[in-house]
Amino acid sequence: MSACQVENAAAATDASRVLLAFWPWEVEHLAIVRATRVEGKHRKKAHEPLRVEPSDLTAATPNGACLFSALLSTHLKPGEATTLEVLYVLTHAVDPYPAAIVGRSESQLVYYHDSAVLLTPYHVLEQATYIKLPSNRIESITMVDPTSRAGAEIKYGTYYNQMPITYLRISVCYEVGPFAVVEKLERKVDIPCQGHIKVTDQYKMRHDVAWYKRIFSRPECPRIWPLANTLSSSIKDRLYFTLLQGPRYGWHCTPSFTAGYGLPLEDFLFESVDGRRYINLTFGIPQLDTVVDDFATTVILPEGSKNPQAIVHFPNPQAIVHFPTKTSYSYHDAGRAKVVIKKKNVVGEHNVPFQVYYESNPTFMLADPSTLWAVIIVVVCVAYSLFQAFSTQAGNQDTI
User: Of 30, 36, 37, 236, which has the fewest Cβ atoms less than 10 A away?
Assistant: First the structure.
């Protein structure tokens, strides 16, 4: 999180954007970047979200720095100043030290590398950098005067008159606990014509810091039920519930596990002004502090739906989404349209609503009941025919 006051030079022209700089390795691990313009003070403070997009000036920056543009809705006139708050999330940005451990009782250390000064294409008059760590167990830090520490917080600066694209490398080694990363998550959302929405999440997870040198022993784990299921009867009357997942050092959930639940259709299905129906769901996962390397959401539409269109409101164009339209088949229908939304490097900030619009055919709402009644009628007719045949045969034998 960066908060900076930007001032347009008195001799310059109106500024329509503010450039944000990142190193190439940061762009590779960049999950999301947001910029907000802050106006006013205290209770009258107003926050205006800004659109962020890659800049076409990247080729002209030194040392391979990559630039993004935060577009200002109101141009910044010469001599004027404004405050920007920039939030960006980096995934897989720490290195385990050591890379592997022998016992799970050993301390797990990681290295975090950064710069003591803000990477920016502008001249910086005054700045300070604060690094807040998850624990007070700090093994080592890089000292760049002036540097101070208070508990789990490290302060670098204040620094004055820094030149553009300045880099002062720092490293912080601290202790962390085991944490999980979702390698792959496949979510299937089945939307029926009537009833409940069925959501199925299939996870493949791993522990993402130090690897465990020894063989992972299953008897050392807590008791695991053969079906590994959570009974819905114990949670159906609750407004919310928590499923606790405890990763261990060296833990790798190779066989993926599945979590499923149902949602009332009337709370998520709506009709637009143009007559189309649309489903309103949330993209992302409930684990806000968990990274998903590869995420795919499949929305299976009701039978007879056509012309599906997915709309995802990601905060910046860095989130690339694919919308292939395919067909899903089951045991009782002739094929249903489905939309697949794919995204890599997903974090908690990606938990935003998305909509899938489609054109529905009301006659298909009777498809499942009609099929059921047709099967029942056929079974009754066959049973009646067999009964008549056996009765006739028995009557002929009695006559003989």
Answer: 236
Reported in sequence order, the residue ranges of 242-392 that DSSP labels E, i.e. its strands, are 252-264, 269-271, 277-282, 292-300, 306-312, 325-328, 336-346, 353-359
**Whether 115 contacts 128, CB under 8 Å:** no
Whose CA is closest to 31, among 323, 289, 319, 283?
A: 319
Structure tokens given for 374: 């047709």
Encode the chain (400 residues) as per-residue pLDDT tens digits: 899 999 999 888 999 999 999 998 898 899 999 999 998 887 788 899 999 988 887 666 777 889 999 999 999 999 999 999 999 999 999 998 888 877 767 788 999 999 999 999 999 999 999 999 988 899 999 999 899 999 999 999 899 999 999 999 999 999 987 777 888 999 999 988 878 899 998 888 887 777 777 655 443 444 444 444 444 445 555 666 666 665 555 566 655 677 888 888 889 999 999 989 999 999 888 777 789 999 999 999 888 888 888 888 876 544 445 555 555 555 455 678 888 888 888 988 888 899 999 988 766 555 556 566 777 888 889 888 888 887 777 666 655 5
At residue 377, the 3 state secondary structure works out as helix
**Measured on CA atoms in the order 13, 16, 22, 28, is the torsion positive or negative?**
negative
Contact 296, 340 (CB under 8 A): yes
- Cα distances (Å, whole numbers) of residue 67 to 64, 113, 115, 140, 318: 10, 20, 17, 31, 12
HSE-CB at 23 with a 13 A cutoff on CA atoms is 16
Give the containing element (helix H, strand E) for 84.
strand 81-90
The strand pair at 100-101 and 211-212 is best described as parallel
Q: How far is it, in rounded angstroms, from Cα 142 to Cα 154?
A: 10
d(CA 338, CA 328): 6
CA angle, 334 as apex, 301 and 365 as ends, to 5°?
A: 55
| Closest by CA position to 187, among listed 48, 346, 319 | 346
